[in-house]
From TrEMBL:
The gene is recD. This is RecBCD enzyme subunit RecD. In the RecBCD complex, RecB has a slow 3'-5' helicase, an exonuclease activity and loads RecA onto ssDNA, RecD has a fast 5'-3' helicase activity, while RecC stimulates the ATPase and processivity of the RecB helicase and contributes to recognition of the Chi site. InterPro entries: Coronavir_polyprotein_1ab, P-loop_NTPase, RecD, RecD_N, RecD_N_sf, UvrD-like_helicase_C. The lineage of its organism: Bacteria, Pseudomonadati, Pseudomonadota, Betaproteobacteria, Burkholderiales. It comes from the Bacteria.
Amino acid sequence: MTAGPGFQNGAAATLASLKQWSEQGWIRRLDAAFARFVDEQQIGAPAPLLLAAALVAHMEGRGHSCVDLDLLLQDSDAVLGWKSEAADALRQLMASAMPLELGVWLDAVGSSSLVWVERVDTASQGGSEPLVLSGAKLYLRRMWACEQRVAAQVLLRVDVAAACRPEPLEVRRWLDMLFPASSAESSLDWQRLACGIALNGRLGLITGGPGTGKTYTVARLLALLFAVDEDPLRLRVGLAAPTGKAAARLKQSIDSALGDLQTQLGAKLELQQLAAQIGPARTLHSLLGARPDTRKFKADAAHPLALDVLIVDEASMIHLEMMAALLDALPASTRLILLGDKDQLASVEAGAVLGDLCTDAELGRYLPATAAYAEAVCGQAIADEFLAVEASRLAQQTVMLRKSHRFGGPIGQLALAVNCGDARAATELLRQGERQILHELQAPTLAALLQLAVNGRAGALGGYRAYLELVKQRPRETGGECDRASFEAWVGAVLCAFERFRLLCAVREGLFGAASLNLAVEQALVEQRLLLKRGEWYEGRPVMVTRNDVSLGVFNGDIGIVLRPFSQASQASQASQAAAGEGNGVRLRAYFSDGGSLRSVAVSRLADVETAFAMTVHKSQGSEFEHTVLVLPTEPSRVLTRELVYTGITRARKAFTLVSGWPAGFSKALAQRTRRASGLLERLTDETNKAT
Ligand SMILES: Nc1ncnc2c1ncn2[C@@H]1O[C@H](COP(=O)(O)OP(=O)(O)OP(=O)(O)O)[C@@H](O)[C@H]1O
């Protein structure tokens, strides 16, 4: 339908409302500006189109790939989760200026020259329309194109018929050697199955909670790939992860697991020589070749990565656009293995790709052909409850690991209860569990929280005092190379000590938000004389990079500590430095751990950083701390979800403390799920893609 007069009158009211909403902070200025852009581009743009345009931009900013207009009409509160004042304003606008029937709304949007309507009967992708309507889902074209590319690439890679599969008996022989404990058992070893399945296509998805052995399994998969390859010395293997820290952890775990395997296998496979070919683990940005000031990478379909196998850890953090870029840059023949915990929070940016790809992974849904193949290579049958007569091809390439080898204890039990949404069991564990491991700071005051931040708590390692005491123990410098070595060892020890303890916040704003807690902790540490703060930059300041800077070699999420560099005399020079007015960071550098080595950047060159005593749970993904303190806000928030709490808890290695600023916050969070709007799953499970 064309824009009716009613809609045109509503257009002015809609633009006025959007302006007001952006001033109130309910939507971003960018969202209102996008609606204005649509209005400028199309004379007489109808109100439903303008509102839909603003909302699709708004939802993209909140991590959604699209907005489902059908769901929005049915229950705008559930889709947007706005606070009541904003939700009422939206309802009022919709009642006065919008059609309340889906068909009429879709017509108003779909008939616009700025909207490309996707149809199943044509492969055409339209032209330069900024918006795409697919069924009732409205996308920004960039998001839609990424989703299309990811779906197409995934379907190409799960095409088992096209995969080059090694001889099953040979695979079985090696799996028996790599998993000797389970080789004689009849019940299924999921780790063993994951290795077998990964060989069955060019995409393998291995998901599982913390400590379920994703890295342990993938190290065995690597050994298996080397073992069955005709020319293993030429096998090009890459390791990557979304953040530098996760990449370093992956490399360390794989090296250590391959070392253990070499002992286990002896002369049967020269693993050490083969492992040396693997090279360092890289961030995805570095692997793809990020270029300053552009979303494009050096590696792409025209300049593909020269790899036969790529293993990517912490895949839950990969957003839609990055996944599209990664898949574009991988030759069709490359075997891609994605590892991650599907139940963790998705990336900050739009998309929940791993969550979508691993939907229902707990059900298995293996088809008879997959079960037969698995039995041939693993020698173990998949139980009936995990079989299906009809399922997606993707499910055939997905394995969920189920047994935690690290978290058998209280932290694992707490994570499990949280993942099931069982607030009663989780609260009981926190209140009656092993005190040294699990603890809840009840009715917390800011003072009690700061005391915890500075000194930790009885029985559990932690508090920032420990690393700051170490900062004070800087080795004396006399000028030789030995001194440099001890300086670097000290910097490494300071970085390690800082990584042992962390405050993780659910939100940025408010009393218990990361921004104000950072200031409060900093102040408390100054009062305790653990910090000497003169201006923005001071020795011991922990910083987190908030934006990739390729030229400096620092990436979003990297954590460093500000210190005086080597060969700047210690105590005495600090005083003279201050006297010379150099206290505000003129000669300080931020030190970052880069796998086994150190990297430093002059603080004057670091523009996009923030203090990191308290960080958001989102930013903590891919990291673990011996003692993690999860701080929930003092009032309800839509970001307080089960996935956020689960992610926070699973960052803890030895001890976990919950600080819930609002008494019902914990149980309310467990009742609230993160649901990201996306069409990826439908594209992957569409009738035409079903395997039988
Ligand atoms: N089948 C197994 N037998 C013995 N030990 C195992 C087994 N699987 C895993 N482990 C051990 O359990 C610990 C956790 O394994 P791993 O680090 O591979 O888990 P993960 O899923 O990668 O953990 P996360 O990603 O949460 O760090 C390691 O010490 C590993 O050696």
